[in-house]
């Protein structure tokens, strides 16, 4: 990207929460925290953060279900420094016992924060229904019990197994030349051993009846999530389902926003969304409403979800295509977005999809394809509803669970 003055580095590691047995739940996330706590060359945490912050750059990381990513964005003259730091963190972190114990307390605080936030609890309840008895159904950060059981030896084994060149993608975008990046990476990783890593746990459960989970809380709002199993990132219907979500609940002109908020004033926030994993996915709608009007809101949401099985108009489809492709193209102006795009696809699919090809895939979706995926995915037996708030009327809510 010769027109930019920045460079973004994203290092994707092929491990996340779905690789973890229950007793090791949260270890990928714990390791992500610990690599910021010091290396042999930079033994203090502040030496790591100062290396980037002193240049005006940004350094961060995140753990997902299928990968862990470490990323940095700096002004172009500091690329060598940033790459050296990231690889030093991933190769040479000390994982000393004192640092592990301190960070364990930090992770426990993070877990407590998650438990305190109703929206996070809503998501957790839904994940448990969508992916029962599976790592995808557990919080990425694990539980206090599982994090307490993670030992230093477990951490070292995890790093040795997954943090190696055979399981990593380094993705760089910005004002640097490809050959210079390759040269730097080769110099910094020449003696890095490759090891064999364990694959993730496949998901094969088939839902056969609607489900409801309620968590009573004295909150001002009742939070509602309605979701169904969706499609994977390699399913040819993923683009049709993405566009269905846009028509239904993404943006201020979507069906749900117009009906639930504009016409009836039932919610400030109502939206839909999709998630795609390697072998499964989900489609869902979330809303926050007045507890006294929660049942009306649930019925209206389900009515809108059910009605989209009858199809979408040509005008709705065209607007959804423009929104999806425009949003995607706008994202690609940022070096960090591009490094993330390339690295994510290379790690999970083994290829980098051309942006124009993805745009064409969206543009080629027909209204009949959206109707087909709606009828395949949006069925009563696949419905899941999670509710967090001052609500206890299980029977009444169960009676609403049909499209």
Concise structural overview:
The protein has 403 residues and is an alpha+beta fold. 46% of the residues lie in helices and 17% in strands.
Could you explain how this protein is built, in words?
The protein is of the alpha+beta class and 403 residues long. The protein has two domains: 6-189, Cytochrome Bc1 Complex, Chain A, domain 1; 211-400, Metalloenzyme, LuxS/M16 peptidase-like (Cytochrome Bc1 Complex, Chain A, domain 1, 2-Layer Sandwich). It has helices at residues 27-34, 45-53, 79-92, 97-116, 118-130, 144-148, 152-162, 178-189, 238-249, 255-263, 294-307, 314-331, 335-349, 355-363, 367-377, 394-400; strands at 6-13, 58-63, 68-75, 168-174, 211-216, 222-229, 267-276, 281-289, 384-389. The strands form two sheets. It has a five-stranded mixed β-sheet, sandwiched between helices. Helix 9 packs across helix 15 (367-377), helix 10 packs antiparallel against helix 11 (294-307) and helix 12 packs antiparallel against helix 14 (355-363).
List keywords for this structure.
alpha+beta; Cytochrome Bc1 Complex, Chain A, domain 1; four-stranded antiparallel sheet; 16 helices; 46% helix
Layout: helices, strands, pairs:
Layout: E1 6-13, H1 27-34, H2 45-53, E2 58-63, E3 68-75, H3 79-92, H4 97-116, H5 118-130, H6 144-148, H7 152-162, E4 168-174, H8 178-189, E5 211-216, E6 222-229, H9 238-249, H10 255-263, E7 267-276, E8 281-289, H11 294-307, H12 314-331, H13 335-349, H14 355-363, H15 367-377, E9 384-389, H16 394-400
Parallel strand pairs: 5-9
Antiparallel strand pairs: 1-3, 1-4, 2-3, 6-8, 6-9, 7-8
């Amino acid at each position: 990207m010769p027109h930019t003055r920045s460079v973004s580095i994203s290092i994707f590691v092929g491990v996340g929460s779905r690789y973890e047995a229950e007793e090791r739940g949260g270890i990928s996330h714990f390791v992500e925290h610990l690599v910021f706590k010091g290396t042999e060359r930079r033994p203090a945490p502040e030496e790591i953060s100062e290396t980037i912050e002193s240049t005006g750059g940004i350094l961060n990381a995140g753990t997902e279900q299928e990968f862990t990513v470490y990323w940095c964005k700096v002004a172009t003259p500091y690329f060598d420094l940033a790459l050296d730091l990231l690889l030093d963190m991933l190769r040479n972190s000390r994982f000393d016992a004192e640092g592990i114990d301190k960070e364990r307390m930090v992770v426990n605080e993070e877990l407590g924060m998650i438990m305190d936030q109703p929206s996070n609890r809503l998501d957790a309840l839904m994940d448990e229904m969508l992916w029962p008895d599976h790592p995808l159904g557990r919080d990425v950060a694990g539980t206090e019990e599982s994090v307490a059981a993670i030992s230093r030896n477990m951490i070292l084994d995890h790093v040795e197994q997954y943090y190696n060149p055979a399981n990593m993608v380094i993705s760089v975008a910005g004002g640097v030349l490809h050959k210079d990046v390759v040269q730097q990476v080769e110099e910094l990783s020449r003696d890095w051993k490759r090891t064999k890593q364990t694959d993730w746990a496949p998901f094969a459960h088939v839902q056969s009846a609607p489900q409801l989970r309620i968590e009573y809380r004295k909150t001002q709002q009742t939070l509602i999530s309605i979701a169904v199993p969706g499609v994977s990132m390699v399913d040819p219907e993923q683009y049709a389902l993405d566009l269905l979500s846009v028509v239904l609940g993404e943006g201020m002109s979507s069906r749900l926003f117009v009906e639930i908020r504009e016409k009836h004033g039932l919610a400030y926030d109502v939206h839909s969304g999709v998630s795609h994993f390697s072998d499964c996915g989900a489609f869902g709608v979330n809303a926050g409403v007045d507890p006294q009007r929660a049942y009306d809101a649930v019925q209206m949401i389900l009515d809108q979800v059910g009605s989209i099985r009858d199809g979408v108009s040509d005008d709705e489809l065209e607007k959804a295509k423009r929104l999806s492709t425009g949003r995607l193209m706008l994202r690609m102006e940022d070096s960090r977005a591009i490094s993330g795009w390339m690295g994510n696809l290379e790690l999970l699919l083994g290829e980098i999809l051309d942006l124009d090809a993805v745009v064409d895939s969206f543009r080629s979706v027909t209204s009949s394809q959206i109707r087909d995926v709606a009828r395949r995915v949006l069925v009563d037996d696949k419905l899941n509803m999670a509710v967090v708030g001052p609500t206890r009327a299980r029977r009444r809510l169960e009676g609403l669970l049909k499209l």
